[in-house]
Amino acid sequence: MTTLSFSKYHGLGNDFILVDNRTSREPLVTPAQAVALCDRNFGIGADGVIFVLPATADTDYTMRIYNSDGSEPEMCGNGIRCLAKFIADLEAKESQIIEGQTENQPRSLPHTYSIHTLAGTIRPELRPDGQVKVDMGEPGLLAQEIPTTLAPDNEKVIDKTLEVAGRSWQVSCVSMGNPHCITFVEDVEAVPLHEVGPKFENHEAFPARINTEFVEVVRPDYLKMKVWERGAGPTLACGTGTCALVVAAVLNQKCDRQVTVELPGGNLEIEWASSNRVYMTGPATLVFSGDVNVEAAGR
Description:
Order of helices and strands: EEHEEHEEEEEEEHEEEHEEEE
Distance between the termini: 16 Å
Strand content: 35-45%
Radius of gyration: 19 Å
């Protein structure tokens, strides 16, 4: 029997199983086991499993993640906020060196971690107000960076026509280390997400599949979004997708560079700064911790 210690966190309802993987440079569970653990009826239930691995190069830690379908994305915005909180909780427990001490002693805040991901180095900052602000880096705008065939490799993919589910959609594509397709709609609640989401994700125009954001512009400083995530389906929030949609909205002259984005699970604050870096601020919340029999999870 393989017993796995874990903690479950969520960022605006986008939930993850967090695993202390610092004793190994490879994830402690397989993609198939991650699928079983993410099962909401027969497992713990989550949108993905995130592993905290040892540092790479000049970073503090390394992040790996398996989606609920077993695929491995380059990065996850809500996930890295949860990761930062998880690391801080681990460090606090390990700092309990005073005999008889029972309360965690957190780091002085704000504090920034340097995290190696498949999308590059990401730097989440734990703030005194409990929020996590993440420097998400610079967006990729060229077709080859997405990747997509909607434009020549060295051109931007802005306001292009894509045929999906029997209708034409105007789309823009942005990479935040992982691929996103953004389309603006009049009423985001009217989008048949379960019908069109899979067809966007697996469209031939996206050889690595795609995350898709459906966006309603309420005001230049306030947007509403629903998302179909590659490898996870509909989720209550998507951090990288929220960053990507703001970049796309600015390039389509639909919003300001600093906005609030409303997702089904709550709001994120996004800024596309003049430095070309995108900053995301939002919560990360511990749900519970425990141990699980990996072999017993799943169907």
